[in-house]
C-alpha cells in the first residue's frame, strides 16, 4: 500500500500542476478577450496623472479591477517588483469620463445607434461609464418590464459600464408602486420632459407629475432629470398665422424655441424643488436640469434656487459651448437640437457660468438617428430630427474650445468624471482614488486631428455629426474600464465585457 502511494504521488502532482496551468491559462484567455492587456496586477505610469489632489508625475497600481495604490514622483520605480508596468510617458492619465446623458436607442432602434456601436464610440472617446436615457429606444423604459428588455438587449454588447435612467411619464407618475418597481429593479433615477419629446410612448409631464415623482425618489435618494422647456403661446401676428420664415434657415428654427421656453419650465420646476430642501416632503430627492442652453434668465433662476437650499444641479453640453447660431449655415440640419444652440453672446455666458461653478457638469446628450431623418438633402430645420451626435468626441471638443477660457485638466475631471458620477450615485467611479474602479482615459492634449472621412469614428452614422470637418486637439490613446484595457490605438478588446450598473 505504501509502495502504491509513492508510485501515485508523482501522478497526483502532475495532475495538480495541469489543473493549475489550465485554470491560469483559462483565466488569461478569458481576460485577454475582455482586455488588450493580459494582466490582473499592473502599474500605469505617466508624467501627468490627474487626481483630486492635483496633477503629478507618478504611477497607479491596479489589481483586480480596482486602484490599489498611487505613488507620486519617481519613487514608484523602487516599489514595482515583478508586476507589469505600462508607461504612457507624457500622455495624460485621467479618470474615465462618466457621461450621464446619452441615447443609445437599444432595443428597438438599433438602426439609429445601439449598445455595441455606441459603447465602442464611448470607449474610443475615453468614456468609461454611460447612463442611458429611457427614450428613443422602443419601448421607452417606464416600467420594470421595459427595463428588463433594455438590460437583456445590453447583454454581451457593452464595451464600457452602462447604467440606466427610467422614465417619469403621466402614466406612472401618480402610481407609486410602478415607480417603486422601476427603482427597485435598478434604474439610477428618473427622467421627464416638460415639452413634447417627439417619442409617442414618452409623453410630457407637468409640475404635478414632477412633484409626485420627487416624493417617491426621496425615499431612494435618487435624482430626477428634467428636459426643461415649456411651449409658449404665439405672441405675434406672424406667429399666429404660421408665417415663421424660411425652413432652411437656422434662425427660423431658433425663433420657434426661444429662451423663454426654458425660463418658463425652470420657473415652474422651482415651485416643486422647494420640497427637496432638508426636512421637506421630498427630502433626499434631487432635481437635475439637463442640457441648459439659456445662460440668462433660466440660469439666474437656478442660481437663486441653489442659494435657497433646493437640491438642484444643472448641466450643459459641448455643442452649446462650441457653436453659435450665427455660424450655422442654411440647410445644415446636423446642428438641430433642443433646446437650440443660441447666439455667440449666450455661448460666452455659458462658458463664464461653467468656469464660475454655476453650471455643475457636462454631458454629451448624444442623440443620433438615421441620416434620412436629419433631412440633410432638404435642409428643412423644422422637419428634421433634432439631436447632436457626439459621443466619441466630447473630450477633445471640450478641450479644444475650452482652452482659451482657461480650462484645465482638473476642470475636465470635475465636469466629466467626479460630478456626473456623484449624480448617478456611483461612489466607485469619478476619480483616481485608492479603492475605486480602475477606470482611466489616457490622452494627448497637444495632438491635433482632422475630423474627415478617413478619421475612424465608431458612431453608427458619423456623417450626421456636427463636428465633422472640424480640427480638434486631444487624441485618446487608451481607455481602461475596471482594469480592462478596452481600447487602444484604434483597436477594441475582442469581447464586450462592460458591466450593467443597477442601483441596489
Low-confidence stretches: 1-29
Count of strand segments: 19
Calculate the mean pLDDT score and round it.
92
* Shape category: globular
Please state roughly what percent of the residues sit in beta strands, choosing from under 5%, 5-15%, 15-25%, 25-35%, 35-45% or over 45%: 15-25%
Keywords:
single chain; 504 residues; alpha/beta; 9-stranded mixed β-sheet; 16 helices; 19 strands; 21% strand; globular
Please tell me about this protein's structure.
With 504 residues, the protein is of the alpha/beta class. It has 16 helices and 19 strands. The protein has helices at 2-34, 76-79, 115-124, 144-154, 170-173, 176-184, 207-220, 237-240, 250-256, 259-269, 297-307, 318-322, 344-355, 371-374, 394-402, 409-423, and strands spanning 41-51, 54-63, 66-72, 84-87, 92-95, 97-102, 127-132, 161-164, 166-167, 190-193, 223-227, 286-289, 312-316, 361-362, 440-450, 471-481, 484-488, 491-492, 500-501. Strand 10, helix 7 and strand 11 (223-227) form a beta-alpha-beta unit. Helix 6 (176-184) crosses helix 7 (207-220) and helix 10 (259-269) runs parallel beside helix 11. The relative contact order is 0.16.
